Amino acid sequence: MERLGIYLQVPFCQTKCTYCNFHTGVVAKERFAPYVAAVCAEIRGHRELLRAAGVELGKGSEKQEDSQEWLSHLVDTVYFGGGTPSLLEAGQLQEIVDAIREAFKTEFEEVTLEADPETIEEGKATAWVKAGINRVSFGVQSFSDKELAAAGRMHRRADVYRAVPILRQAGIRNISFDLIAGLPHQTKESWTQSLEALIALRPEHVSVYLLEVDEGSRLGKELLAGGARYSAGAVPSEDEMAEFYEKAQAELAKAGYHHYEISNWARPGFESKHNLKYWRREAYLGFGAGAHSFSGKLRWANAHDAAAYAHAIESGRLPVEQLEAVTEKMALEEELFLGLRQLSGIDVRRIEREYGVALAGRFEPLAAAGLVQREGNVVRLAEEKLSVSNEVFVELMR
Ligand code: SF4
């Protein structure tokens, strides 16, 4: 039976980190309950709301009567992202999980909650497990208090050491840590210390992201303007970031982690089942303000503003902000881009067969430049080029 992933967007945070380019807001706790009620209403009424919003095409079928068939697939992964979903009361998370169980066929294999270390409490963790949450993804970012403070994070190193045993005690067997390479004040030494501290805590999964510099964050804007606020002057250079990434590759491999996606490593068997759906172009349905969905034929996103979203749902309307039919050309580009993000690479024959294209011309120059490697039908990014993968993707899409 085909599977479906569900993503829940919780766009609330305690503060705004300087590097954050997500649509999140700092709001009073009283705003959580109406938002959760709206998300539950969207889940329960999803078929009617989608139809009314003009989201009609289903996966693999153009026929109107079959158009929502993919919504009946078995839901095996759920992902609470944000924002900081761990700020919600455990009972509110339970309400959302219950609504999913009522509205879909479910057999949960992986239910992830993104959490900030300082939000972890014993009672909460036990209630999360009771609600069905079996994976916690921690925004650790760094083990240096100086870097955490400069980035505007609420937690400190000590919070991570306090939170992990609480989660283990509560029965969470799958913990993921995020680190960011490129935070202000990060040095080769502090990065090595963060990696060592992370490995010593033995999370099952690790994500390493490079600092994104764009207009969407306060730090990004400051860097682009050449200013010094938010410790912009202390941000490592691009070359240093690439070095940090390569150090992570080496240390995580030594510690037994399997590198399976550009930014992700896992102990065998702990690869993120939900995130793999994104990279494999499988169907997922997003609920909440700003949540994205993909049916196989269409991509769409809900409006970002949490209050406007909740108000629309209360009035029986789904505020779809972007709705895009995925053309054959777009689908092919996604196959190449998302496929190459995975270290297992892409099956060139399958893509050539499915899309009726010849790909040799695209890959030969990249292989000659040492950017990709070809082994039989499989093409993958060259391991030593992973830290500059964006350059490879630019070449590939030319
Ligand atoms: S906790 Fe995450 S989502 Fe919230 S402000 Fe910080 S980076 Fe952004």
Detailed description of the structure:
The protein is an alpha/beta fold and 398 residues long. The chain has two domains: 3-279, pyruvate-formate lyase- activating enzyme; 328-397, Arc Repressor Mutant, subunit A. 39% of the residues lie in helices and 21% in strands. The chain has 15 helices and 15 strands. It has a nine-stranded mixed beta sheet with strand order 7-8-6-5-4-3-2-1-9, with helices on both faces. A three-stranded antiparallel beta sheet has the order 10-11-12, with no helix packed on it. A three-stranded antiparallel beta sheet has the order 13-15-14. The mean pLDDT is 93. It binds iron/sulfur cluster. The site of iron/sulfur cluster has 11 residues, from loops.
DSSP strand tally: 15
At the fourth level of CATH, the homologous superfamily of the largest domain is tm_1862 like domain
Figure out the total of helices.
Answer: 15
Q: Strand fraction band?
A: 15-25%
Sum up the overall morphology in one term: globular
Compounds present?
Answer: iron/sulfur cluster
> Do you know the CATH architecture of the largest domain?
Alpha-Beta Horseshoe
Query: How many strands, what sense, and barrel or not for the largest sheet?
Result: 9 strands, mixed
CATH topology of the largest domain: pyruvate-formate lyase- activating enzyme
In the sheet with the most strands, the strands line up as 7-8-6-5-4-3-2-1-9
Proportion in helices = 25-40%
Radius of gyration, rounded? Answer: 21 Å
Tally of separate domains: 2
Identify low-pLDDT runs: none
Q: Give the helices and strands as they follow along the chain.
A: EHHEHEHEHHEHEHHEEHEEEHEHEHHEEH
The secondary-structure class comes to alpha/beta
Q: End-to-end distance, in Å?
A: 37 Å
